[in-house]
Amino acid sequence: MTALEAVVPALPCAAEPILIPVPAAAVKVLPRWAEEDEVLRWRLRFREHHDGEPSRVGMSEDDGKPWTELELRPFTRELPLTGLSHGKLHYFKVAIETPDGWSNWSHTVACEPPSPGLPGKPAAVYAIVQDASSMLVRWTRPIYFSASVSCGQIQRYKLLVTWKPMEGESVESCQREITIDDDADCCEVGDLQCERDFQFQVAAENVTGWGPFSDVSPVVNVPSPVPLQMIAPTVRRPTHHSAVIQWQHPAATDIPVDSFRFRYSSSGDWDAKDVVEILDVSTHATQYTVEGLSPGRTYYFQATAVNRHGMGIWSENSLTLTTMDGDTPSKVEELSVPHKYSSFITLQWKPACPNGFPVTEHLLRLSYREDMSEPIAVDPVIHKKGGYERMDLKHLMKKCYWFQIATINKKGQSEWSDAVKVDLLSRAALENP
User: Fold this and answer.
1) What average pLDDT is seen over the chain?
2) Sequence-separated (6 or more) residues with CB below 8 Å from residue 75
3) What pLDDT score was predicted for residue 150?
4) Is 153 helix (H, G, I), strand (E, B) or coil?
5) DSSP of 257-324, one letter per residue?
6) For residues 361 and 354, what is the distance between their CA atoms, to the nearest angstrom?
7) What domains are defined for the chain?
8) Are strands 333-340 and 420-423 parallel, antiparallel or unpaired?
């Protein structure tokens, strides 16, 4: 007989302990004795009920089965035992040591450690968009006592993904379940369609089963994979009515860019009525000449790219650009006489630059002197041919003429062109076409 097994037969049995089942798979043992007993130590024996054996409740003698035995000091009046097989009957008995020796074992008492409850609902479920087809879903693990012991730990999670049905779709076809075989707090969900409203719920499982689903997460929409926002364009080479806009292509993705788009405004207010958009600019271009600007006005420009899913976000404003101020037309250049007969000539010249405002009138004058003194005004009838402006003069006398051309816009009259000489006096001076 060992020292632990030695008890004094003459002493009475110890009082039966108080057993308190504790979730999950735990029992709290409280030994009982009076203060005057002067307890020095106490022992606890416990074991699991074996299948097929009769009940041992109330028995005090040794039954020959293997017991687990613990010896404790008297100040331990409450002993929690965890990690027991839940849902199975267990037997417990105690003995106490006094100055007179060890008592007999108490009568055996039985207790069934409770099984852990179902997991609670995970909380704070929310999703973060990763890219055009995936999200990272996070949640807070359920917190309760039974999850703090081994048999109550979460074994896996179930993630329910739902989205709003579109026309022709059923509710059953618009949901998906994902099982996470781990005690985790996040899961990346892929293969999501863009521009659909997704919501998520999470449930946890332990040895008892699946707990309830969490509350539904806020709605998250996977954005359409439109092109990335472009860098603000640069604008240069302003004229009275035009400017050259340059841009950098956005970073390449799996979805190619179909075209570029620009807009400009003189107010910088993109909701104003003065906004003009330029559509369908080729993807092979990196610069484009914007026409139709007003002279002496300040403009802001923005750029964006378009693919099959739609248009990207407009870029930031470019640096401001001011077109050239309007002025009178430029001096007519290249005045010449391509055709000359005895009484008929054709004058030809390169069109004047309008300098911001359209040419509204042409002026023609002639003189019989080289210094253009005593000029005679002629009402011109202008027609265009081959990029030049022309005028035919008929029924001329056989004299020597000098001609000049000027143009007029809303700013005023241009400088007179250089005079061109036409000699109809001598037949040798005529040039037949």
Assistant:
1) 87
2) none
3) 52
4) coil
5) --EEEEEEESSS-TTSTT-EEEEEE-TT-SEEEEP-PPTT-EEEEEEEEEETTEE-PPPPPPPPEEPP
6) 11
7) 18-111 (2.60.40.10), 123-221 (2.60.40.10), 234-322 (2.60.40.10), 333-429 (2.60.40.10)
8) unpaired
